[in-house]
Amino acid sequence: MSNPILAVDGLTKRFGRPPAQVRAVEDVSFTVAPGEVVGLVGESGSGKSTIGRLALRLVDPTAGTILFDGQDVSTLPERRLTPLRRRAQMIFQDPYASLNPRLRVSGILGEALAAHGLARGRRRERMAELLDLVGLPPEHLDRFPHEFSGGQRQRIGIARALAVEPGLIVADEPVSALDVSVQAQVLNLLQDLRARLNLAMLFISHDLDVVELLCDRVVVLYLGRVMEIGPTAEVAARPRHPYTRALLAASPKADPDGARIARLLKGDIPSPIAPPSGCVFRTRCPLAVEACARDVPPMHEAGDGHRFACLRDASEMREAA
Amino acid sequence: MTEPLLSIEDLEVRFRTEDGEVAPVTGVDVSVAPGETVALVGESGSGKSVSSLAVMGLLPRPAGRVAKGRILYRTKAGETIDLAQASPDRVRRLRGAEIAMIFQEPMTSLNPVLTAGEQIAESVRLHLRLDRRGALRRAQEMLELVEIPAAAKRLHDYPHQMSGGMRQRVMIALAMACNPRLLIADEPTTALDVTIQAQILALIDRLRRETGMGVLFITHNLGVVAEVADRVAVMYAGRIVETGPVGDLFRHPRHPYTAGLLDSLPARATRGPDGRRHVRSIPGSLGRAAAIRDACAFAPRCDRVREECRRTAPPLEAIGVDRAARCLFWREM
Ligand SMILES: Nc1ncnc2c1ncn2[C@@H]1O[C@H](COP(=O)(O)OP(=O)(O)OP(=O)(O)O)[C@@H](O)[C@H]1O
Ligand SMILES: Nc1ncnc2c1ncn2[C@@H]1O[C@H](COP(=O)(O)OP(=O)(O)O)[C@@H](O)[C@H]1O
Ligand code: SF4
Ligand SMILES: [Mg+2]
Ligand SMILES: [Mg+2]
């Protein structure tokens, strides 16, 4: 396999100081190969966005390393991050808040090109190319963000990210705010772009169906920790961690003949300020035993890069599912 | 079939705005029978919330008004009244005593300076004429009813001290406190995580089964529809475009919009010639389709559109006993 474009190892991020310290990300390791799309899934507060921002060094890690194109960027000072800023870009959830309302589309794309001194002397042409790439006509260059629908705005956000020809895009819930018919358009666009531009993506979502569609591999997070990681189809078909199982069971399926309202996970997500000892999932886990409170479960291999962090034996889990 | 509790007929809602009058709802026909869950589904801006506010008599005044149609509600006393015509006072009393509503964001409908117990107690004191102690006891029962752990303690918590899921439970407790016969739930789980959403859906469903109340469940999520609904009403650009029992409608949609929505689901993606999975999307967006009056409002996005569609506004046509579609060519679907 080719060298990863992104490799994080032991990545940890804590906000604030004890006793009110938030453990947003704890000991997270995974890689993204060039052209590969890796999904980060998990419920609110599981650390998805923080990992995305760490990967782009928009925040500093508390511990752990971030290798970008093989170079350790985890402690580089801001002035030396320019190459990273060009090779990696972000797309946001809210297509309304992420575009400057006072700039025309040409201004928004122009800013991105100018920041890295790109397409000098042929900017307008390059901007039209970028719009074409995301399926918008060149006339739209002269419009303001408020003149577009949510889906169109998200296309403009994608065009801006593509302006610098990045190798990696961190997409933080890019379709979550869109209606399903428009969401489908943007998902298809992302599929096309990754194929045409050999883009790698860290794709953040809480929608497992979307992740299954787009991602080669998936990282399942709970309270800042990796519960399970592996090829998406494999994890979806044979989840080995009880949290992944619960998450899959709880996501509503648009199948009126399927079983209604699945087996429920009890209780709320605990506070990230005082996460449970041992396995962070144990307070809601249907399979928890005493040992789960003692030790942080190590990663178990399930083959083919499929790993899960659970003390219980997989065969016992099968019965409970 | 049981006589409906609520039946909305040909509803039109208008708003006065700075740019003149707008009509975001122009053709809503929905009924809810006791004990039944009817899902009102559609994309954002299609008019779901405006329709439900019209039922509740909560349209912003004086800008908003019901311009046409009837909202027939059968009261506990067996009387049928048109909520669109009834006095605001009459509607307000029914809202406290027979019809309840829950919203997406409980924070905006809970009072931030009252504890969970105090809000529920205040409401039951008004509606059930209980004294202070009786009301507080009732409040605790209500928190237990919605499965809030350690309810006696949680009684004294303020909304900001609770998680989103807990707040939604408190709002449901508040809604259930008056023993409603009709519950209108406007995207009650949209802001919640899936595991918490599953808990809340199960809770609403349990309460429906136990009390026999009718539920009008508003959502944009087809997965949620499949889980909760007995019948479905699909809304587009201010109109109901299709209704039917959930199984029939999902298996055999009669309106191109419903078919398109179902095909847009990532779970229904198919593998393309490039080996990648693609979803069939509906081109374009809702935009200003609500303003289209003399044509099919879906025509600009419809893959079956013909000349007639741009000249005639299709009526909502009954198909057999319990289905209807607003498409000139539903027979060909
Ligand atoms: N700047 C910050 N200061 C303090 N705490 C923070 C900060 N940013 C994030 N957190 C906390 O870190 C944890 C992880 O947050 P993060 O935003 O990464 O979650 P997420 O998985 O993206 O959630 P969501 O699905 O809600 O977007 C949360 O408990 C959050 O409150
Ligand atoms: N107070 C108001 N004045 C004018 N237009 C409104 C008002 N409230 C809602 N609308 C418009 O009505 C349409 C339907 O809105 P809404 O019912 O909230 O949609 P949904 O709940 O289906 O997302 C939208 O175009 C919205 O902008
Ligand atoms: S009436 Fe015509 S445009 Fe409208 S949904 Fe039917 S086929 Fe499509
Ligand atoms: Mg986030
Ligand atoms: Mg709404």
UniProtKB/TrEMBL annotation, chain A:
Protein topology in the membrane: Peripheral membrane protein
Entry keywords, A to Z: ATP-binding, Nucleotide-binding, Transport
Domain of life the protein comes from: Bacteria
Keyword DNA-binding part of the UniProt annotation: no
Xref: InterPro entries: AAA+_ATPase, ABC_transp_ATP-bind, ABC_transporter-like_ATP-bd, ABC_transporter-like_CS, Oligopep_ABC_C, P-loop_NTPase
CC annotations in GO: plasma membrane
Domain ABC transporter: from-to ranges: 6-248
A Pfam match: ABC_tran
Record SUPFAM superfamilies: P-loop containing nucleoside triphosphate hydrolases
Location relative to the cell: Cell inner membrane
MF terms (GO), sorted A to Z: ATP binding; ATP hydrolysis activity
GO biological process, one term: peptide transport
Coiled-coil boundaries: none
Family named by the database record: Belongs to the ABC transporter superfamily.
Protein name per its UniProtKB record: Peptide ABC transporter ATP-binding protein
Organism: Methylobacterium platani
Taxon lineage: Bacteria, Pseudomonadati, Pseudomonadota, Alphaproteobacteria, Hyphomicrobiales
Automatic annotation (TrEMBL), chain B:
Record-annotated ABC transporter domain positions: 6-262
A Pfam match: ABC_tran
UniProt key word Membrane: yes
Predominant place of localization: membrane
Molecular-function GO term, any one: ATP binding
Protein localization: Cell inner membrane
A Gene Ontology cellular-component term: plasma membrane
CDD domains linked to this entry: ABC_NikE_OppD_transporters
Its membrane topology: Peripheral membrane protein
GO biological process, one term: transmembrane transport
Keywords for this protein: ATP-binding, Cell membrane, Membrane, Nucleotide-binding, Transport
Transmembrane segments: none
Homology family: Belongs to the ABC transporter superfamily.
Name under which the protein is recorded: Peptide ABC transporter ATP-binding protein
Source species of the chain: Methylobacterium platani
